[in-house]
Specification:
heterodimer; A: alpha/beta; 9-stranded mixed sheet; 3-stranded antiparallel sheet; globular; disordered N terminus; B: 5-stranded mixed sheet; 24 helices
Chain lengths: 451, 895
Amino acid sequence: MSRHTRRDFMRLACCSAAGASMVSGLSKFGLVSALAQGTPGYKALVCIFMFGGNDSNNMVVPIDSRYTGYQQARPTLAIPQASLLPMQMGNQAAYGFHPNLPELQGFFNNQKNLAVLANVGTLVQPTTQAAYKKYQNLPENLFSHSDQQDQWQSAQLMGTPNAGWAGKVADSVQASLNSGALFPPVLSISGNAIFCTGDTTNPFTMNPGQTPGLQGFDTSAASQARFLATQQLLTFDSGLSMVQAANKVTGQAVQYSVVLSDALKSAPTLQTKFPDTYIAQQLQQVAKVIGVKSALGMGRQIFFCAYGGFDTHSDQLAQQTQLMTQLSQAMSSFYDATLELGVSNSVTTFTLSEFSRTLEPGSNGGTDHAWGSHQVILGGAVKGNSVYGTFPTVALGGPDDADQNGRWIPTTALDQYGATLASWFGVGAADLPSIFPNLKNFPTTNLGFMG
Amino acid sequence: MKRQSLALLILFALVLGGCAQANISSLKSPTPTPTPTPTPTPQPFVLTLTPGTSTLRGGLSQQYIAKTSDGSTPAFTWAVNGVVGGGADTGTISAAGLYTAPQFPPVTGPVTVAVAEVADTTKSATASLTLQNPIPQITAVTPAPIDIGTFTLTVSGTQFAQGAVVNFGNTALPTTWLSPTQLTAMGTATPAQAGPIAITVQNPAPGSVLSAPFTVQVSTPNPNITVTVTPATASVGAGNLAQFIATVTNTTDLDVTWSVNGVIGGNKTLGYINSHGIYTAPYATPTPNSVTITATSLANPAKSGSAAVTLQNPVPVLSSITPVQLGAGPFQLTLYGTGFVSTSTATFGGQPLSVTYVTSNMITAIGAVTAAQAGTNVPVVVTNPTPGGGTSGSLSEQVLSSSAATPAEAATRFLEQSSFGPDPESLNQLQQLGFDLYLQNQFASTVTPYTPPLQKATVYDLQNRFFLNNIAGGDQLRERVAFALNEMWVVGADKVSDPVGYTNYLNTLSKDALGNYFNLMNEVTLTPAMGHYLDMVDNDAPPAGQHANENYAREIMQLFCLGLNQLNPDGTPALDGTGNPIPTYTQDDVMALGRAFTGWTYPVEPGKSAQSHNPSYYGGPMVAVESNHDMGAKTFLGQSIPGGQTAEADLTSVLTIIFNHPNVGPFVSQQLIEKLVTSNPSPGYVQRVTAAFNTGKFNTYGSGNRGDMQATVAAILLDPEARRGDVAATVVATDGKLREPLVMEIGIARAFHARTDGAGLPYESDQMSQDVFFPPTVFNFFPPVNPISGTTLNGPEFAIFNTNTSLARANFISDTVYGAIGSNTKLDFTPVVNAGTPTQMLAWLGTLFLHGAVPDSMAQTISTAISAVDPSDTTGQAKAAIYLVTSSSMYQVQH
């Protein structure tokens, strides 16, 4: 569908009354909204953050001769070989997805628009076991949830970040590719996240299904006077830093909530059904907002969605099974919605998680905090059906293990992952080093999974 | 792939249409229906298309026949709505004129089928075709059989159109369309419907049509079911709660409907009963003072059981009062005991107090000390009215002689930092007593308890109770510190939903909040709530190929006691020779600590026998099972723990090592300062509090033992840096903190003397991203370090402040002032209304909410808004003023 250009559509649409009658037939599939609203260069990045540290050892598993090593290293947690979902590449299937990811398997095998990035993580520079044991140039506070979440979201591997890489990516393209935007370029459907804040970008935040707005006002003179006063109170300089900081956020909230709720009034009704899970509801909200991108004047948008429960220190098999089902179904529905909206080639969805988990099981049915992890990237612009990066040797104390418990030293850096997405999004090469400060330490700045 | 190929097909049709524009136009041109007319030769050529006008159901096919008047058989082009070959939405037509309808009619209405000669497109004809919904077919219905009572049916089949309705017998059910092959519908089966019943699906217009019936069985009510309610008789005081249990036998469907005197759920006059059998007696005792509680089986509504309830008040027992010392003027007391009812009254030296009922164990009472009572002990008693009732024993309040009053500005600020917020009476009393006497009273105060949950209560009931305790509890300082600890030593009710477990954990926090930090560490570690939350429970010595669970080991160091990096006593990071922070512990320390924490399981439930892994039970501390403990030697934080120690001995060893680590003082001090006073304490402030923590002594406060919380808290509250904002001349612009939503919410409830059952308050806090007891992770609702965007300041609470929650705060205020919180919360705005003029209203609000006068520009803006309210509507004026003051950032930020 993306091969249409706006000009093509105009030519086709003007030829006859028959054209008009077809418009109604087509609108269901989004061609009209995609083309007639005139954002030919629209692109969106949609982040799904898996809070708690997803055990990607059980998300993507080698099913070839390496399976035995995997099985022996975690006998109590290994997924039976036969139930893993083969990832067909040509006539080979070296890896299998978690059994509860059938939709992702379909994207990988059939639509070929889903890629896997293996063993990616926070890295200052290419790192060896020896360097790890000497604490040489490592990211700060490995294995700490909060620090690793911040690092994955900011690409800043020391100290407390003031901005995130999505926010900085939005900063970078705001003037060139988003000049008509009437709304903040980054939207979080999952609360505050440093990922969303740039040096100049301030994100908008909403809950799924709830358009924010000031409530309790009507058209009476008294009510209108109170509404006006509410807004005026946000503009006074109290001289108190925290009060000013709160006023700034609330002021933006009042302003942009009106813009968004007005735009959403004209939102097309999505036919795509989403499951009733938190992550799916968030992605449905993203789809709704993408549906009004023209009304909001957006050329570029970044969305942040997230769900938790991945910190599976105990009872992992049952817990992760549910989480994988939720991921697979939510991503599938969202992809369908982008098809419906005619933006499937303009929207790229990708996962992040602060770390993977130990290959070695812990003492009560779970695993503990580790490091390098596998992530998935989905979208019409993704060069899918491929495993990018280097899959680790799945062995306790093996060449990729930081120590003896199966905590993989990443072989691909978060910076490379983010820079590949940012480049597709439109960030120029000159801006990448300031967004991804350690990118310069790696030979490849583009991993090639984006078309 | 399916959608892509479909789109390509449409594209192809578009292009074809574009190239053949003229032809298509002629196909579209109106052609009169051919009628045979006797005309002389040469006869004009006529192309006839049959059927001319027709209807067709979704998915079916119809053959069109084009007949030339001259008998020729040329090649034809077929189109639907101008598109050659038709399309997915409008139906397709083959080169031989076989039309196939789409499964469901297009929203655009009837379609036009057109035919034209390929060689001469002026020779054409059209036909109108009305498409109708297909006939739905049911293939399966679940559940089957359907039990008596409410049900949700899933109906599977084919050709379900959007808007299809499921019929249950003759009753149309509210139906949700999921897909063309699946519907769900909700309804109720009555006992009279027992036996076979026909389920049908009706597709809507166009061509509304019913499926063939699909027969399912409605279960015959089981005649052997019995329902018994215990206790069979009960006496309940006004407004009190009582638990009733329904025992249902001879069925697997144990659900019952609860009613009071036949009214399902009860009502205000008879009292309410919820789905868990928890009965709330009416606040005003009805006549006669007896009701019948009935539980009715859902599986067989003919079967029920009952309990006879006498609405009769007990004799109240007054066990303690907080505070025990009073100064002149208005005061509020929290009275603790048993047998309090919603109609309880209380007197102070014989003078009636204004009483607010909270629970059967706690009421609050407002009054004023008279001049004559200064320097005397004044008796307080509680009386319950008839039926039943009586008067409690008397307890004495010590009224002090008046001394110089603390300024209101300073007193308000002190209460913002040391309580859930001032009300007019607590403000007056702090002014009368001064900081030190106030603190001494607080340190000596009765612990507001979380009483054991009723048998069927949930953690949501406990959430409501959190609000009751913190709105009405007299030990405000302890509760505020306990809440800070609840956010530091996090246990999430998403995982620990057992209300007994969570109650015991909360009571542990309250007990130790003003005790010693080591006791807190030890006792919280051993609560099964924490054990379950962070997986220390049933963490056994690891067999080969496994390692000990690291969860609790890591977080007790990172989040509860030490932090990630070594600290100076002033809270700044200690740096190595190259200026880098020094990690507090290594991964090896985490693994050693995980091993030390092995061997603990749930306590033994009374009546059960001990096992190596006891089943979940929260009625006491965890117990050690030595055979599951890793007895090996350990090296932890540079210290050796010998092999062969018991689980208890190892626990004491490692907790002692942690407790004596130099990080604990600055780590705990910094976090408590942030929770109570300011987000950006200076290193000097942290260092002074650290000294109090380390020495266990601050001025006259504290035991002298390391970790003394009274010394620590007093040092926090009495520090010059906490107090400098009391006087305008010494205000520092970067001081203060964004109020936590829960503190703000409770603060407003307290200021306006809320009467509430707590219901609805958790919902409001959830909207503001602080659903009490349900933080998203062990990292709390917000972290201790969170840079405020666009500033160099730290602002932990800003991590849950965004475009969504900032408006949610204002909307909470709106609900409070103009709407409703739950169904049983009332705030009293009359003090503002009665303050007088709008200027006087603002003065009242400024004192309580802004610790001083409302700043001029703000006051002018608010006055303008007030002047738009009808001057005779003084309540409306007061509400506008309350909304604008409390929703403003000047109040949302505690400064």
